[in-house]
Amino acid sequence: MIGTVNKDGVPTIVLSIVSRNWTAVIDTGFNGDLELPETLRPFVNARFLCRSHSLLAGGQVIEEDTYLVDFPFDGRTIAAEATFVGTGDILVGTHLLKEYRLEVDFPAARVVVEKAES
User: Fold this and answer.
1) Is there a contact between 70 and 17 (Cβ–Cβ < 8 Å)?
2) What are 28-67's pLDDT values in tens digits?
3) What is the pLDDT of the chain when averaged over all its residues?
4) How many domains would you assign to the chain?
5) pTM of the prediction?
6) Residue 5: its pLDDT value, please?
């Protein structure tokens, strides 16, 4: 997958979900799988897992519902853990990328996400 570094210096990729392209932020400070907009909930077969606590960058702890979802990623559907938020952004965390190599070239504004070879 090839993405870009946006004008704010944020690495992004484009994911096709429900016949629409969505910009997803690669969030290296997020060690979970996914944060998804509430509008995607009906399309990813969300199944409640648990209430979980998350530590945010500012030291704030929040409690939120976590779901198991069927998520289209890299040409296949994977099982991933997700939370849902009211905004339209998708955040991809480092746990989702555990089998991938991530390259962010800031001067070239280029992002490469590729499956790592075993």
Assistant:
1) no
2) 988 899 999 999 999 999 999 989 877 777 778 878 899 9
3) 93
4) 1
5) 0.90
6) 98
Structure tokens at 71: 């998520």
- The shares of helix, strand and coil residues in the chain, as percent rounded to the nearest 5, are 5, 60, 35
2: tokens are 């090839």
Please name every residue paired with 23 in a beta bridge, in sequence order, or none if there are none: 14
Residue 74 DSSP class: T
Show the domain range for 108: 2-115
Q: pLDDT value at position 87?
A: 83
CATH number of the domain to which 25 belongs: 2.40.70.10
Q: How far is CA 69 from CA 41, 44, 98, 106, in A?
A: 9, 5, 17, 31
Could you tell me the two tokens for 9?
A: 């210096």
Q: Determine the Cα–Cα distance for residues 98 and 22; give it in Å rounded to an integer.
A: 21
Pairwise CA distance, residues 12 & 86, whole Å: 19
